[in-house]
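Cross-posting from the modeling subforum.

Setting up a comparison between two proteins and wanted a second pair of eyes on the formatting. Protein 1 (sequence, then structure tokens):
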Amino acid sequence: MTRRRLLLLTIAPALLIAAGAIAWTLFFRPVDVQVSHPERDVMVQVFGLGTVEARVTSKVGFKAAGVLVEHRADVGDRVAKGAVLARLDDREQSARLARARAAVEQTQATLERATASLAKAQANFANAKSISERRQKLVESNSASIETAETARNAQAAAQADVNLASSDMAVARATIGDAKAQLQQETATLDFHTLTAPYDAMITARSKELGSALGAGEAVFTLIDPKTVWVLAFIDESKAGEIEVGKRAEIVLRSRPNQRFGGQVARIEPESDRVNEERRIQIAFDKLPADFHLGEQAEVYITTVRLAQALLVPEAAIIGLGKNRGTVWTVEDGRLRQHAVTLGHRLLDGRYEIVGGVPDKAAIVAELRGGLRVGRAGKIAQGPAK
């Protein structure tokens, strides 16, 4: 019994000391905590995935049917407006055009002849009229017979008929030359249809027909895009798209260039969302289009919706009972730990939330939860930024 008592007397103080040390560690020793600090010029961004697309894209072909005999462009080429892309065999149409030109020359000659005939008829009429008038005066003075005057009057009427006939011939010639010129314009236009030109400054993305192909009118030969209209079609979750507006700044990261960010801005917000995925379609225009771009390439977009002059940000993991822009956080006030229900604002892409209300003045918000946190326990703010 003596040994047992001695052993207990020896062990008991040690146990009491250990228990005290544990109690001190768990309940009384100040706990080191990391806290959040206000930050300046904070960008609130929305993330989305999309693909590189072109707003203006065209499938171009000939307006006339024929056989493709010449290519002047290929995939990847950039062509100016009006540049020749391809040609059809135009020998038959060139012959039609030559015939149309000959018809215009022929009708022009006919018109000139009709003009000369009218001038001659008008001169003959003027002469016959003058003779008739003189004969009438001679009859009145009994210097000429009535028969002679009648003959002169009939000659004047015949000359008038010749003038009318010549005028009709000239009207027919004018109508004929008008038709011939219209036919010439039609044949010229048809010949032009055998040459395919670029409708705008473009880049060729596809060539669907090769030399020797027999083409129907309107059949596509090339696919063109306007490089100035290349943008990223991005899909943004509707729940995060409310603050996106046209003109908002954005950053674009192409899948082929993950370490490079391209500047851009919101160019268009489509009025119709994707009903299945509940996403909004947003078009992001490049500030400066990359020289080597690829349509259909996947891209990440980061749209800046708000810039906060100053914000107090807390990691999501440090917020208890997060929901509906509300939550509870730990704070250090006058060296003691406290809890407060707070109002949350914007959420950043890195998972931190803006605290907009519910924190007393001079209170520091705990940025990292750890064991031993208890209301009223002493808290010591660790040096250095919060993780």
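Protein 2 (same layout):
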Amino acid sequence: FCYIMLIVIYPLLYSLWASFTNLRLTSPITNFVGLDTYAQAMGSEIFRDSLVVTALFLVASVIVEFILGFALAYSFSRMQRTHPVMRALLLLPVMATPVSVGLIWKLMLNSDFGILSGAGSILWLSDPMLAVLSIVIMDVWQWTPFMFLILLAGLEGLPKEPLEAAQVDGANHWQTLFRVTLPLMRRIIVIAVVFRLMFAIATFDTVYVLTKGGPARATDLISLFIHREGFVNLNIASASAISFLVLIAVLAITTILFKRDLADAK
């Protein structure tokens, strides 16, 4: 209990207190300002731009990861025999450390000698649109196996009777997939998407190593903005307030998704 208090609860409460003050590491005076810090954060144009970039990154990466992860899981579930080495190889990107992933992709996308840059013809990290695309591709490469693992477990745990009944009734492959398999997988899909959203919104290491939020803040995710406010600008109050705004948004999204799933189940 003491360990939990020291490592989790105390920093959380301290951050919550700091969000209602004007705490700066460059100023010896700290005053209670109420919701002013939250108002200043939400009124910041850089904060709003960062939210837009983060939303685009989340939507694009999670959708692509789900599609690819489900396609792989469905293919594996239909195989008569799958060698365990194949599954282990698919999970290698997830086990790689974020910094190493960022460094590898930075080398591959380098405009001078990167194997994906086309001898400098594709400026992945200099063009704003391509930079956003590059962090999405990197995230998809690393986290699609996570989706694959959860969805494969769900597919292998489905009851056989509805699938056999659909075959007896003459349903073809696609009818069985969309009318039987996917409805039975709804709860597993919601869980996979929610977990991936929670992890994706905290993405920092890989993007920081790859682009540092550039060019021209095109890949400035909310996690990078919070890091810059707290550790570069030393504005602890602003970083804490933005962190709690993100926490509230994540809790709201997950609650809506889970409540909708439970309502549909009833």
